[in-house]
Amino acid sequence: MIVHVAFEVTDLARSARFYDAIFTSLGARRMFETGGAIAYGRDREQFWIVARGRRPAPSYGHVALAAAGRAAVNGAHAAGLEHGGSDDGAPGPRPQYGTSYYAGYLLDPDGLRVELVAGAR
């Protein structure tokens, strides 16, 4: 259903360090790069960060990224914190979303919310 998601960022290199860390932890990689955009995915470009001189708007919503399990959520959350992100909800069970739902939340360097999730339906 979704072809791709793109976030506008203020500093492409700074944001790339953050997203390189969490996507590597989740088994994805950079698949495309130009001076103004970087795309990540496993078999195709699905998540983009782009620098166009527009300011991002924190709290507009979030993107949820699939993790292979709880250890992957924990690892990606830690990697994001080490690379310029901030905690917006420690990894843990989220029974309100389902019995096997496990997630952690980060804010990227521009304050955009990223959810790392295992056990989603």
Can you put this structure into words, describing what you see?
- With 121 residues, the chain is an alpha/beta fold.
- It has a single domain, classed as 2,3-Dihydroxybiphenyl 1,2-Dioxygenase, domain 1 (Roll), CATH 3.10.180.
- It is 22% helix and 36% strand.
- The protein is built from two helices and eight strands.
- The strands form two sheets. It has a four-stranded mixed sheet, covered by helices on one side. It has a four-stranded mixed sheet with strand order 5-8-7-6, covered by helices on one side.
- β6 and β7 form a beta hairpin.
- α1 packs antiparallel against α2.
- The protein is globular, with a radius of gyration of 14 Å.
- The mean pLDDT is 93.
Please give a handful of descriptors for the protein shown.
121 residues; alpha/beta; 2,3-Dihydroxybiphenyl 1,2-Dioxygenase, domain 1; four-stranded mixed sheet; 2 helices; 8 strands
